[in-house]
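May I ask you to comment on the folded chain given beneath this request?
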Amino acid sequence: MGHTLEEARAAKDKAKQLFASNVGVGITKVDDGYAVKVNLRNPLVDKENVPTAIDGVPIQFEVVGEIRKQ
């Protein structure tokens, strides 16, 4: 079973703190649940030390270029 929207929202708040600069953080639907989506301005330099989940909620990364508030 996938993660609930509430779990994803809690993980999103933690991701905002963890990836504070040069990123946009949101929630995305995956399979039968939700994940945190981190939009990056530039590719990650140190991928080995980047978490793939927060409290069990998966994180998806995408390089999107300039981050703008919508």
